[in-house]
Amino acid sequence: MNERTPPTSRRSRPAKPPLSREVIVAAALDLMARDGFSGLSLRRVAAELDTGAASLYVYVANLGHLHRLMLDAALGEMQLPEDGSAPWREAAMSLLLAYLQALHGRRGLARLAMTALAAGPGAMRIWERLLHLLRGAGMDGRRAAWGVDLLLLQATAIAAEQAGRDAGGLRPESIREEVEALPEERYPLVRAHADDLFSGGGLQRAAWALEVILDGLAAAPGVRPGLGETL
Fold first, then answer.
1. How high is the pLDDT of residue 100?
2. What is the DSSP string of the chain?
3. Three-state SS letters, 195-208
4. Is 2's pLDDT higher than 90?
5. Residues 6+ apart with CB under 8 A from 6
6. So where are the chain's domains?
7. Is the pLDDT of residue 10 over 60?
8. pLDDT, tens digit, 9 for 90 and up, residues 57-81
9. What is the mean pLDDT of residues 119-143?
10. CATH class of this structure's domain 81-219
11. CA quadruple 54, 57, 62, 64: dihedral positive or negative?
12. What is the distance, to the nearest Å, from the Cα of residue 20 to the centroid of all Cα atoms in its chain?
């Protein structure tokens, strides 16, 4: 009597991992790394996982919710500088530059950070560290809290601008050529300061901008009651 041949799977690839929020976020980050931020959609993430888009709604409310989860997961992988005995400005600068470089180092992440606000453990450890530093520098709670928002917004905008330039293949040299072709009689200051306008590397200019904000926060008064209410 011949033994039966054991059944073999017709699948051409390993079995899918069980669907979960973590699996969905990881697939979305992989998709963004490959196709960029504009390539993200729930339908495409579902296709990456060989499932239907409707099955994702068990774990994520909508695409905006997925964006927030993705950002928080990516920030959770960011290595924070050691929390040593450095002066608060130096410690804050190290943290902010690490954040900026984390955004710039992963395709699509800077643009994602411009459109989403993460509130999970990955992002909150950055907020916590910055609040600790600003409060330790003598700032009241409101100034420190608004300062965290201002500093991270500036760092995010810098990373997003640079990522946009990289994606578009924009060369600073080409912009300078256009500036130097401007009529000097109409734009005398732009022409006179062309060297200054195009001086410094991206990281140097980013660090300077963040230092300006840190110095301003240190010297700024508390938030005045009624500020901005007439605007």
1. 95
2. -PPPPPP----SSPPPPPP-HHHHHHHHHHHHHHH-GGG--HHHHHHHTTS-HHHHTTT-SSHHHHHHHHHHHHHHTS-PPP--S--HHHHHHHHHHHHHHHHHTSTTHHHHHHH----SHHHHHHHHHHHHHHHHTT--HHHHHHHHHHHHHHHHHHHHHHHHHHHHT--HHHHHHHHHTS-TTTSHHHHHTHHHHT-S-HHHHHHHHHHHHHHHHHHPPPPPTTTTTT-
3. HHHCCCCHHHHHHH
4. no
5. none
6. 81-219
7. no
8. 999 999 999 999 999 999 999 999 9
9. 95
10. mainly alpha
11. negative
12. 24
Residue 184 identity? E
Q: Which two tokens stand for residue 50?
A: 């060989």
pLDDT at 196 over 50: yes
| The two three-digit tokens of residue 21, written as one number | 């929020």
In Å, how far from its chain's centre is CA 168?
Answer: 18
**In this structure, are residues 214 and 89 in contact, taking their beta carbons and an 8 Å threshold?**
yes
